[in-house]
Design a protein that fits this description.
The protein is an alpha+beta fold and 173 residues long. The chain has helices spanning 4-8, 13-22, 99-108, 110-134, 142-145, 151-172, and strands at residues 24-28, 33-35, 43-55, 61-65, 70-71, 85-98. The longest helix is centred in the last third of the chain and has 25 residues, at 110-134. One of its GO terms (cellular component) is cytosol. GO terms for molecular function: DNA-binding transcription factor activity.
Length: 173
């Protein structure tokens, strides 16, 4: 599933418009490194197009990321150095938003902050659940539960998809 659906499902149309207008569309060439291992990043990225590889310190592939994925979200709440690198496997386009811009919006708009932090919590909880199941914890419900969305999230998936599609069209123009 595109992780942007978890984020955009919690935000309003206006919130997504603010993200799109506050960011910069950036092309990243195949073979480059978007985020180096053990770096401190000050940017959140929304993958608009392309393919990225998340790699552990030993070079092991952790995940592939494509359109609709989000990178750098943890840096908004924890500025610790990265535990992985993100390498560009095919030419990629991202929406790049500086953390200081997001932090200023969070400080000045409490309603946006509430929705945004809830969206981050939903996103990070999904990632933790997925990783926990991938590591073999969770017992008998593993296979059935790992791809299911709860009812609240499911209700917002169509809105989130429409919001992301509008963002893609806006960024293409």
């Amino acid at each position: 599933m595109r992780k942007v659906l978890l984020i955009f499902g919690q935000l309003t149309d206006g919130d997504v418009e603010w993200l799109a207008s506050s960011g910069e569309r950036v092309h990243v060439d195949k073979g480059s490194t978007l985020i180096p291992l053990a770096s401190r990043i000050d940017t959140i990225y929304f993958v608009l197009d392309g393919k990225l590889a998340v790699k552990a310190a030993n070079g092991t592939l952790v995940a592939h990321l494509e359109s609709g994925e989000i990178i750098g979200e943890m840096s908004l709440v924890d500025p610790a150095p990265t535990a992985v690198s993100v390498e560009v496997e095919s030419d990629t386009t991202v929406l790049k938003i500086a953390n200081d811009k997001v932090q200023a919006k969070l400080a000045s708009d409490s309603a946006f902050a509430s929705r945004f932090y809830r969206a981050l919590c939903v996103f990070l909880a999904d990632r933790l659940r997925h990783n926990t199941l991938r590591m073999g914890y969770g017992g008998a419900f593993d296979q059935h539960a790992k791809d299911e969305l709860n009812d609240d999230l499911l209700d917002n998936v169509h809105l989130a998809g429409a919001r992301f599609d509008r963002m893609l069209k806006r960024m293409a123009g």
